[in-house]
Specification:
243 residues; 5-stranded antiparallel β-sheet; 10% strand
């Protein structure tokens, strides 16, 4: 395998590729490694409310391409990776964090119950209280309560069901970008796609109702015509503000 690119090289290499060379297969193990790298991305409260579906089956890939309207980036992809938001898994992720913290204390020999309880209270009390807002009614009531509370003191206000949905997608999008950067570092190309039939795609992946597909990432090695033009960005001075 060729040497990996530096971070700056990978950023400059990454383009949204719409047409892949179907005669150049990808190494499945390398793509899987890049997904592992994605799981190291920052995530809200370390809850890791995501799953990644790595599509290598030719038949399933064709069905997914159809659900993506057969756009060239999907139709010519060698493999696909689909990051899925799983807010409904928060109780399991909370428990995993609690067990990790307990194991850390045991390894360090910390036995003071008050010290341990302070460390665990975030996952035992605050996060469960926050994620009750996943229920639309409870989330609405919490939004009102936090608004009133905010009249008196600095307050966390993103507590409604729609707020938590945004949080889940932000974390998953960070992981997706990390995956694409890792792929670029290995000389592989990707294209994040939002154009898909979410109902059809969830059915193909056999996802539960609570799961939400963040995006579909096609993967391959670009053809020259696969990059549709020069990279365009508005002037940096239009988006950069130092205070």
């Amino acid at each position: 395998m060729k040497s990996e690119k530096t971070v700056s090289e990978a950023i400059n290499h990454r383009r949204s590729v719409r047409v892949y060379d179907e005669n150049q297969p990808l190494d499945t193990a390398t793509v899987k490694f890049c997904i592992e790298q994605a799981t190291l991305a920052p995530t809200s409260s370390n809850l890791q409310l995501w799953e990644f579906y790595h599509i290598t089956s030719e038949s399933l890939k064709k069905e997914i391409a159809s659900a993506c309207f057969n756009q060239p980036a999907a139709r010519t992809a060698q493999q696909m990776v689909i990051p899925v938001v799983r807010r409904d898994l928060w109780p399991q992720r909370v428990e995993a964090n609690i067990e990790f913290i307990k194991a850390g204390f045991a390894q360090k020999g910390v036995v003071d119950p008050k010290t341990q309880e302070r460390a665990l209270s975030y996952y035992k009390k605050i996060i469960p209280h926050l994620y009750k807002g996943s229920n639309p009614l409870l989330g609405f009531l919490m939004k009102i309560y936090m608004g009133v509370r905010g009249l008196r003191k600095t307050t966390y206000r993103e507590v409604s069901a729609s707020d938590l949905r945004v949080v889940g997608h932000k974390s998953t999008a960070l992981a997706a970008q990390t995956f694409m950067m890792s792929m670029a570092a290995h000389g592989y190309d990707t294209c994040p796609m939002e154009g898909f039939d979410s109902v059809a795609l969830k059915r193909l992946l056999q996802l539960p109702a609570a799961a939400e597909i963040s995006m579909v990432i096609s993967c391959g090695i670009r053809k020259p015509e696969g990059v549709y033009g020069d990279r365009f960005r508005i002037p940096f001075t239009s988006v950069y503000f130092q205070r």
